[in-house]
Amino acid sequence: MKVALKTAPTIEPVTLSELLLHLRNESQDIAEALTTTQSIRPGAHAVTDDYTHIGASAEVLDKTVVVNLNSGTVGDGGAIDAKIQESNDNTEWSDWPGGAFTQVTAANDNAIQEKQYTGSMAYIRVVAKVLVGACEFGADILTISHETIEDAWLTDTIQAAREHVEDITRRQLLTATWKYYLDRFPGGSAITLPFGNLLAASIVYRDYSGAETALTGNVDYIVEDNGAGCGRIVLPYGKGWPSFTPYPSNPITIEFVCGWTAASDVPKKIRHALLMICADLYENREAQSSSQFTYQENKTVKALLASSILWEEFE
Question: What distance separates the 2 farthest-apart alpha carbons in the chain?
Fold first, then answer.
């Protein structure tokens, strides 16, 4: 199988903080690790038609994050709507799904609502609007840093473990772009692509002179994603593969995007297997003898990954 990675994943199936929790590794006390950011200052806030009470942001990547909405007295008919927004660049913001706090009214004021942020972006903030009458409230972002002197090593270990799981399962766990090279079009009506979770595909072929021709999706071919299984490129009814004199080297290139799009989409059994591999690498950093119990021999890891292996063979 002739494939080349074009664009690697930008995230990993587990975060550094998740691995540190799994390892029970924490090198800081709570006073050093905990930081509180005052996103919306406490006090009386005026009525607004939209979410124009925009709080300060906090950097949350690889941290445990809790957001508190602390409400004071809400007058009759008044209400507070607040929600968490997230961003990768601290400039472009979007609502974090599940980040809306329960609306605060006179029936539930003078209380604290708490939400843990479990997203994967680098920054969050709180935004709010006030209905009918001015209301007293504030919002804080509490972050716990899991930084240790081994962070760089552990981060590399997560990537190594993910790549090892990909080798075992023959999958692309998280979104990446690959190029798949063929010497000829198949005799049948479909081309099966490797690595599972197919998201998109395009086809370009080169003739003997080096001239390239791109096929048109949904006209010359159909992309069949097949869920977590191996996707296919299928000929529509009445269509055939191009007939041409091929270029001598990699005349057909299929560029495709595959993998789960978010770490939370990766099945838990794969994530747990990955954490177990990381833990073994952490405990056994030197060469091991054949008599030692290593992750290659770990029956639990094998059992967790067994049903996720893709068995298709490719050219």
Answer: 80
Across the range 266-284, mean pLDDT stands at 93
H-state helical runs in the chain: 16-23, 30-33, 151-169, 268-283, 299-306
Amino acid making up residue 11: I
CB contact set of 213 (below 8 Å; sequence gap of 6+): 204, 205, 206, 207, 242, 244
| Token pair belonging to 121 | 């972006």
Q: What is the CA radius of gyration of the chain?
A: 26
Burial degree of 74 (CB within 10 A; 0-12, 13-18, 19+): buried
Angle between helices 299-306 and 268-283 (to 10 degrees): 150
Residue 248 backbone phi and psi in degrees, to 5: -70, -20
Residue 263 DSSP label:
G
Query: What is the structure's pLDDT at 295?
Result: 45
Backbone angles phi, psi at 30, to 5 degrees: -65, -35
Measured CA distances, 179 to 39, 71, 193, 217, 298 (Å): 44, 54, 10, 17, 33
Question: Which residue, among 161, 128, 175, 126, has the nearest Cα to 15 in the 3D structure?
Answer: 161
The number of residues making up the chain comes to 315
CATH topology assigned to domain 28-145: Jelly Rolls (2.60.120)
pTM passes above 0.70: no
